[in-house]
Structure formats: C-alpha cells, structure tokens
Write a structure and sequence with these properties.
Number of helices: 8
Strand content: 15-25%
Number of strands: 18
Order of helices and strands: HHEEEEEHEHEEEEHEEEHEEHEEEH
Structural class: alpha+beta
Largest sheet: 6 strands, mixed
C-alpha cells in the first residue's frame, strides 16, 4: 500500500507540471501525454481516445460493481486580470498558483493519487475506473461523453470539482432555448401586419411566471430566465419575427425532455434547444458514499453549476479540494494542504465501503 505522504508529494509535483502546459479545451494533447506517462511509469495500463486517458485497477473483476473516478485536465483561457504568469506553478504562502490549479487540477491529481492507492489492492468490494478527461469547460462532445461507452458498466461516480470537499449530491441541468415568435410585416403608420414583439411578450411573461408542479427537495423550483431578445430592422416597420433566448436550469425533479415538452405545450413561439445533453443529476442521501462523507464531517448541498456530472446516467457525487469561488479567477490558486486533505478524505470515504 502506497504511503499517502508520497502520493501527496507526487500529486503536487504532477499538478505543477500540468499547470506549466497550456491545455485549453480541445488543445489538451500535451497534458494527456503527461498524465498517460505518469500512470504508465507507475505500472498502470492506460487507454486513450483523443485527449482522454482512462484505466482500471490491476485486479479488476467483472463480477464486482465499479466506481468511476473522474476529473478534467482542460482549462479556460486566462482572463485579463492576471498579475502573474498563469503557467508559472509557484508555491507561495501555502498556495499553489496557476491556471487550472483550482479548477480542476487539485481534484484531478487527488483522484489520480486515490486511484494509485487502491490500484494494486486485492479483495476489494469494488473495482475502480479512473477517467481523466477533456473538454469539460466547454461541455464538449469529445470529452467524458466520448468514452463513456468504453468504460463498461459503472455503478456510481465521484466527479472531482472544487467543493471544499463538501458533497454536492445534486446538480442542476442546463438547457438553452432559442425561441422565435412569428408575426407579419407591415408599415407602422398604418393598421398593417402583426407585431411579433407583442406575441413574444406573451410567451416571455409565461417564462417569467410559470412554476413547474414538481419541485426538487434540494433546489426547489426550476429556474427560467429570458436573457437575450432581438427584433425589428427599422422604426417604421412592424417586425415579422422576434427572437429570444431562455436559460433553463433544470432540477432533478424532471428530465430535460419532460421540461421541453411542457414548455412547448404552453407557448406559441418556436422553441429549439441548443442541446438536451446537460442533464440534472442526483445521488440519494442514503447512498453509501454519501453516508461515508457525512460520517467524516462533510455536509451535503445542491450545486447550481454544471460539470461533467451532467453527462452521467449513474448516481454521482461532486466533491473535491479547492473552492469553486476561485475557478476562472485571475491569479487562480489551490492550497497545497487542500490537496493533502482531499487525498486523505477521498481515501477514507472509499475505504469505508471498499
């Protein structure tokens, strides 16, 4: 069994190397190379598809259930507020700085460490599948979603995102709807045409006020927000069409397809979803991994932000070192002690059930 202090030291070193390599979404090939080499040097047989690396524990047994350990190695682009080199992974005052250090580098290297901790252990009750994936920051189709068919049967998952090691047991789904209200053009000076803006206003008011009958125990009601509207070409022409965009944050009380059907039944405009892939997720409070975390003093909550958890059709908990409030900020950092704590807590949670 590997000493957790050694795992911690290796994790910090690996994270520093990852930070030093630019890995914007769709450009993660070099960080994928690094992760692949890191695992192979430690005797792990790896699999790769595009910029996604995955592996199973050494004594994988198909008759046993499998736990997914997943986090991502792509980053957003650094914002203009940076005062430091975003690729210079220095440690100062206990903080490891750099782009992607918090989102989700600390989680990623912690879960890799946990996988290595269990990798050679025999007689476990569960198998482990480690998936280090790409394109999370853009909800891309060539990340986790691409390799899910290759991972085999999964029973539940731990998704590594910065949560201060608290347990996100539910996550909102997301649908972005492009809506078009149709009218008929005419001259504004005469009683001509049918104003598409007025037709759109009726539907917009519905989006503002409608409350879905079923509500989530964690989140409460579904939230719908009209965020963009556009119509008209000049002041004296009655507009024939009015387009608007609706941001819909779906809760675990519904599937995305159900919400879309209800919306279409109530509005007169054309409604086209950009995607229905980003599903709401939930894991029962009585699930063994949740109970294990609570027993270690962790709290449960519902996450308003989306992650690769939305692509999974299995129960999953989102938990990891770091703070989501630091994600995508200038001079991003993670405390090195958060990584140490993350590794230890992940292991304790999993040991209690494995």
């Amino acid at each position: 069994m590997i000493d957790t202090n050694i795992l911690f030291e290796q994790a910090v070193s690996l994270l520093q190397q990852l930070i030093s390599i630019q890995s914007f979404s769709k450009e993660e090939d070099k960080t994928a190379d690094l992760i692949e080499k890191f695992l192979q040097e430690r005797g792990v047989t790896t699999n790769r598809k595009l910029n996604n690396i995955w592996a199973w524990n050494k004594h994988f047994d198909a008759s046993k259930p499998t736990i997914l350990l997943n986090s991502h190695h792509d980053t957003v682009k650094p914002n203009s507020g940076y005062t430091r080199n975003p690729y210079d992974a220095k440690i100062e005052d206990g903080k490891l700085y750099g782009l992607g250090s918090n989102d989700a580098g600390g989680c990623l290297v912690s879960l890799i460490s946990v996988f290595l901790y269990f990798y050679e252990q025999e007689n476990l009750k569960y198998n482990f599948c480690l998936a280090t994936t790409a394109e999370e920051e853009i909800s891309g189709v060539n990340g986790l979603e691409l390799i899910i068919p290759d991972l085999g049967k999964l029973d539940f998952g731990i998704v590594g995102e910065p949560t201060l090691m608290q347990l996100a047991i539910a996550e909102r789904g997301l649908m972005v709807l492009d809506c078009v209200a149709h009218g008929r053009a005419g001259h504004a000076a005469r009683e001509e045409g049918e104003n598409a803006i007025y037709k759109a206003l009726t539907d917009i008011e519905w989006f503002r006020t409608f409350r879905f009958p079923n509500e989530s125990e964690v989140f409460g009601p579904i939230k719908m927000s009209v965020t963009i509207i556009n119509a008209g070409s000049q002041h004296n022409v009655v507009p024939a069409s009015c387009t608007f965009t609706v941001d819909v944050r779906v809760t675990d009380a519904y599937r995305n397809e159900e919400v879309l059907e209800i919306i279409r039944q109530h509005v007169s405009c054309d409604v086209t979803p950009r995607s229905i892939r980003l599903k709401p997720s939930k894991i029962d409070k009585d699930h063994p991994i949740v109970k294990a975390g609570v027993a270690l003093g962790r709290t449960t909550y519902g996450s308003p932000t989306t992650s690769d958890q939305s692509l999974l059709d299995i129960p999953s908990v989102k938990v990891g070192p770091g703070d989501s409030a630091r994600s995508h900020t200038a001079d991003e950092f993670v405390y090195v002690e958060e990584i140490k704590e993350g590794i230890e807590l992940y292991i304790k949670m999993l040991e209690s059930i494995c």
